[in-house]
Amino acid sequence: MADMCDAAFAADWDTVRRMHERWLPLMKANFLGGPNPVPVKAALSLMGLSTDMVRLPLLPLEEAFRARLRLVLETTGAMEFGASGATQPSTVEARRSAVQTDIARATATAHA
Q1: What is the DSSP code (8-state) at residue 14?
Q2: Which residue has the higher pLDDT, 81 or 75?
Q3: Were both Cys, which of 15, 26, 34, 54 would link to 58 (CB 3.0–4.6 Å)?
Q4: Given a cut of 90, is residue 89 above it in pLDDT?
Q5: From the centroid of its chain, how far is CA 40?
């Protein structure tokens, strides 16, 4: 999302459109099968970056929606950002650290 915003600020509309079209199915899938944050937590769990544990009254994402979400993650290439398929624990930890850094940067930028 940050890269897409950077491209928009640079008026690189071809890149913005390409990125938007790539990630739109995932953005839509994040709202199917349950209220926020249920699908998002399920996606992060499928990617190996978090758990999908939620507190009541929320319930975990149903299996039919989880299967659809997995397909979207695989189709968009989002699974490559997670721990799935990673052979080295250090790779997983490095990616988690990078994701946390990206979140902190985006939060700081949003509040600046």
Answers
A1: H
A2: 75
A3: 54
A4: no
A5: 7
